């Protein structure tokens, strides 16, 4: 699937799909989400492995990952929720 970025995506505070207006489709949709490992996740992973192994348990949680909200119709990146730090 092709990802299209129209302007800059807004910062949101939710990890769950929600209703968002898509400027490309000019309609309101429930977002499609993808969770990815961001910079904070990798820093925590390295520090957890080197210094404090139980810290790595936190990395399994959805709140430790970045959540990207996309338009389900056209694939436009609408919002980002940065996880962790």
Automatic annotation (TrEMBL):
The chain crosses the membrane at residues 41-60. It is found in: Endosome membrane; Late endosome membrane; Lysosome membrane. It holds the Pfam family zf-LITAF-like. One of its GO terms (molecular function) is zinc ion binding. Coiled coil: none annotated. It comes from the Eukaryota. This is LITAF domain-containing protein. It comes from Caenorhabditis brenneri. The lineage of its organism: Eukaryota, Metazoa, Ecdysozoa, Nematoda, Chromadorea.
């Amino acid at each position: 699937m092709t990802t299209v970025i129209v302007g800059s995506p807004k910062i949101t505070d939710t990890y769950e799909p929600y209703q968002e207006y898509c400027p490309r489709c000019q309609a309101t949709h429930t977002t499609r989400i993808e969770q990815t490992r961001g910079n904070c996740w990798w820093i925590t992973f390295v520090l957890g492995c080197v210094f404090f192994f139980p810290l790595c348990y936190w990395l399994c949680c959805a709140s430790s990952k970045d959540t990207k909200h996309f338009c389900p119709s056209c694939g436009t990146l609408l919002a980002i929720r940065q996880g962790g730090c």
